[in-house]
Amino acid sequence: MIMSNRKLNVFLPLLFAITLALGMYLGHKMPGANTGAQTLLFTRPSRAPLQEVMDLLKIKYVDTLQVAQLQEEAIEGLLSHLDPHSIYIPPSNLQSVNEDLEGHFSGIGVEFNIISDTVNVVSVVPGGPSETAGVQSGDKIIKVNDSLVAGNNITGEKIRKLLRGPKNSKVIVSMLRQQKVTPIQIVRGDIPLYSVDASYMVTPEIGYVKISKFAGTTYQEFMDAVRKLSKSGMSKLVIDLRQNPGGYLDAATRIADELLDDNKLIVYTKGKGYPRADYRCEKPGLFEKGGLTILTDEGSASASEILAGAVQEWDRGTLIGRRTFGKGLVQEQFDLSNGGALRLTVARYYLNSGRSIQKSYADGRQAYDDDIMNRFNHGEFVNQDSIHQLDTLKYKTAAGRVVYGGGGITPDIFMPFDTSRFTNVLTAMYSRSTFSNFTYQYYNSHKNEFDQYKNATLFTNQYTVSNEVYNAFKAFAVKDSIPGVASINAHDEKEIKTRLKALLARQKWGYPGFYEALNKDDEMMKKAVEVLNKD
């Protein structure tokens, strides 16, 4: 051991010299050695060009920049080259987007509209904070705490921000009622955002359920509705998915499980970094037997198409309406450090047959967005023969029905769109909210007239819009600068009276009353009842 240490001591100076020389040589050869730049012993991980540009802009650019805005625009620029459903959600929008799908938010529990720069309470959530505090339909909101909102160019977004807040927090809302302003203290609470807008018995046997989106609470709402209808004698069911943009995949598959039996495959998903996942029926369903129809149109998308497609492929029911939107992509939401979120497409979904109903986005987002209008322009909304099947997959069900993949789901029974509903005078009335503004004012000044109707069904079956109400509406429309009121034709008059009746029902019974009254003369609903009555 002593001998060995003596030899090492002799060679140490030589080793140090060699190491020093090698270090000087390598240092001379490293990038930046002759440029005056600081040289590091270890190289940094390389940065992406996009990050390099952002860093240079922050440090070197001649003017002060709004860096956060630039970053958001850069993100949106990247996503514009992907599919149309991969989107960036800014921090300012994230809460409202999440609330819509979670099925609730924290607020005071009123529905309002803005007429002549005044916030009017249209309805009060039953059992909610405002009803508990004594707020009534017809009240006008003048102030929220110290913020004057009447006659102050108030917008819907501004009033929502003032009224919403943390659960159990207090807000003082000054209400104008019968020419007297009264401050009312309201304790904010959880307010449900319902996705099953209506459920009622159409006939003694046929029930109706309207699903407006697939949110976190949709499955339970659907179950509650079906149980209620079953107790009322329902043996056949209409599910209305018109203008339903979709939502949570899980909500759609759980509802499908209630309609399909055995271990049937409802849908499966897969992507490049997303292994295949099958969604099958797992338990006995609440409505596996009995007549079933599903109503669809060009606004039925995503989760709506999963439910409708599964029912169609397994011959469980009849689809009635028009070709669906054509969205077969699955998004996952990722939270970002700036408080926003990235909703990124991670997979495609495929129905039991293996068909994907995603329409093409190869021509860019603008062409994708124009697809619905193009369908209308080439006549698909009014003529079944104008539907352009993409034939990416042709599949025959056990009952012999032929279905197609790509570009949405084609219903079994086509129902044309009534283009005559949108004449110039009617379009002006819809765009200026003339219908809702009139019915709000008329109802609140004639409440006693509606007390004779104990429920929405009696109202729907017995109430008729009188000439007195119709003429009052026309006078209101003239004051609202609607052109062409004097030359309204018979078809427009029928449409106006139908809309007025439905909106008056909504004033008293909310959306359940609205849809029950509106569907009374709806052609698609009539066809659904006709089909179910043949079963």
Automatic annotation (TrEMBL):
<dbReference type="InterPro" id="IPR029045">
    <property type="entry name" value="ClpP/crotonase-like_dom_sf"/>
</dbReference>
<dbReference type="InterPro" id="IPR001478">
    <property type="entry name" value="PDZ"/>
</dbReference>
<dbReference type="Pfam" id="PF03572">
    <property type="entry name" value="Peptidase_S41"/>
</dbReference>
<dbReference type="GO" id="GO:0004175">
    <property type="term" value="F:endopeptidase activity"/>
</dbReference>
<dbReference type="InterPro" id="IPR005151">
    <property type="entry name" value="Tail-specific_protease"/>
</dbReference>
<protein>
    <submittedName>
        <fullName>S41 family peptidase</fullName>
    </submittedName>
</protein>
<keyword id="KW-0378">Hydrolase</keyword>
<dbReference type="InterPro" id="IPR004447">
    <property type="entry name" value="Peptidase_S41A"/>
</dbReference>
<dbReference type="InterPro" id="IPR036034">
    <property type="entry name" value="PDZ_sf"/>
</dbReference>
<dbReference type="GO" id="GO:0007165">
    <property type="term" value="P:signal transduction"/>
</dbReference>
<dbReference type="GO" id="GO:0006508">
    <property type="term" value="P:proteolysis"/>
</dbReference>
<dbReference type="GO" id="GO:0030288">
    <property type="term" value="C:outer membrane-bounded periplasmic space"/>
</dbReference>
<comment type="similarity">
    <text>Belongs to the peptidase S41A family.</text>
</comment>
<dbReference type="InterPro" id="IPR041489">
    <property type="entry name" value="PDZ_6"/>
</dbReference>
<feature type="domain" description="PDZ">
    <location>
        <begin position="94"/>
        <end position="164"/>
    </location>
</feature>
<keyword id="KW-0645">Protease</keyword>
<dbReference type="Pfam" id="PF17820">
    <property type="entry name" value="PDZ_6"/>
</dbReference>
<keyword id="KW-0720">Serine protease</keyword>
<dbReference type="GO" id="GO:0008236">
    <property type="term" value="F:serine-type peptidase activity"/>
</dbReference>
